[in-house]
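Today's session is about reading a structure prediction critically. Students often jump straight to the picture, but the first step is always the sequence itself: look for stretches that repeat, for charged clusters, for runs of hydrophobic residues. Only then move on to the predicted structure, which in these notes is written as discrete structure tokens rather than atom positions. Here is the chain we will use throughout the hour.
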Amino acid sequence: MVSAAAVADPPDFDRARAVASFDGVMRELIHAFKFHDTHHARHLFGRWLTEAGRELLDDADVLVPAPLARWRLLSRRFNQAQILAAETGRLAKKPVRPFALVRSRSTPHQVGLTRAQRQRNVSGVFRVPSNEIASISGKNVVLIDDVITTGATASAAALTLKRAGARRVDVLALAIVANSSS
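Below is the predicted structure for this chain, in token form.
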């Protein structure tokens, strides 16, 4: 089912898949992974992503993790999307380009923002470094992330990848927020 907001303002990515809804046990698992440095479920997450995203992965030339802002990466010491992309790439036998998409500036946390506020927050925040354009141009890219909330981050990332020449950009995540603000 497609939301009215998505019809009125379609995302810049082509397709999206998620393993589960972002609630209950899945929310607890992701929070433990993301905020408490608990990586013991990474292999399970990779299997789940590979199964849920089979259709996307079959068409993929390359996997790209959603990048973290530099200061978040320094404080957290890891990018959860990069770990998920590495596991998924290993299982799906697809190359992963962990630095093909970078954040050109930091943004405030998106928690509590509406869809429109999130879109403004991430507008123009991503870039593809010149030394990575060849790894993206003409390729079918699967953007890997932990959670899709409104799709604003995924859409901004997809737009940047497409401007760098990606033929198609699909999104694969562990979870999706079922009822996000519009």
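Discussion point for the tutorial: Residues 149 and 177 are 5 Å apart (CA to CA).
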